[in-house]
Amino acid sequence: MEALLEEVQRVGYVNKPVADNIDLVAEIKRLKKEKNAVILAHYYVDGSIQDLADYIGDSLGLSQQAAATPADMIVFCGVHFMGETAKVLSPHKKVVIPDLNAGCSLADSAPADKFAAFKAQYPDHIVLSYINCSAEIKALSDIIVTSSNALKIVESLPQDQKIIFAPDANLGRYISKKTGRDMVLWDGACIVHIDISLEKLQKLRAEHPDAKFVAHPECQEHILMHADYIGSTTALLKYVVDSPEQTFIVGTEAGILHKMRQAAPHKNIIPAPASANNTCACSECPYMKMNTLEKLYNCMLYEQPEIIVPEDVRVKAEASVLRMLELSKNL
Ligand code: 13P
Ligand code: SF4
Q1: Atom of ligand 1 nearest to the CA of 288
Q2: Which of 192, 207, 220, 203 has the alpha carbon at shortest distance from 280?
Q3: What's the pTM value of the predicted model, to 2 decimals?
Q4: Superfamily for domain range 193-271
Q5: What is the DSSP letter of 18?
Q6: Which of 16, 100, 121, 262 has the highest Cβ tally under 10 A?
Q7: Ligand 1 closest atom vs CA 236
């Protein structure tokens, strides 16, 4: 066991070969029952993992599930901050993720020491942090928000309340514009959403003049200004399914197209084009794509890598996440 833990620390996941004759889907389902585990997955992970999950959702839905699950073990297929949030909310449960290397450019953009110094410059401001941040940043925050509740939470604050918004400057600018609130922004960004190419998008729209363009608020302002609808991943999915329109260009990570196409099989759903620098024609999050069936299987079998959050950090982070869950009850 010690050797396994050392290796997991070194490479970030259980690096054991999986025999060719193993039916990974059947084995993962068996382990789920045997260990009373729940698999929570974000829409951006590979479709094969989404199809195995007990719950697929956006960051708000996933944290609500993590807080309420009766399972003994939470297997989080997403990125590190999501597993951490689950542990913050369910400290007595074992929380595992397939690969510790699955980080997030937004979370990485805000190191705790630099953020604490930044915050100290604005002593009369409260800190609203997007859930895409580390547990340390959550511990330094007053309220956590996600893309599905940020507008409502900001609107619920007194007009004269001064606000720091971190770490996503694009989401912060979008909220600021929608609510008319001036906020101090931390300058972080999502590498995936800022890579959508306006030039290619305009070409694609010319090829599909009837298409509705839907976008996630992590996109840059010059992309969002062309959107017919802006929302969280769950909101984008709902819009595409419920809309009477037939063709959609989707400005977010391409993993969501799996659910959209399952839920609206007769609609034409096209990923928004990424810049020429991207390896694929669409927008893919390299961190989300670190979740593979093999790593998921090994993670459930060996119950590693496990997410551990120091208790002093956890308690403070929990307060800001619980404030969000409380404020989101009637959304
Ligand atoms: P939501 O699913 O909450 O919209 O967040 C998108 C995202 O970038 C998660 O990393
Ligand atoms: Fe982070 Fe962007 Fe990947 Fe979401 S899509 S996990 S915000 S890098």
Answers
A1: 10
A2: 192
A3: 0.96
A4: NadA-like (3.40.50.10800)
A5: -
A6: 100
A7: 4
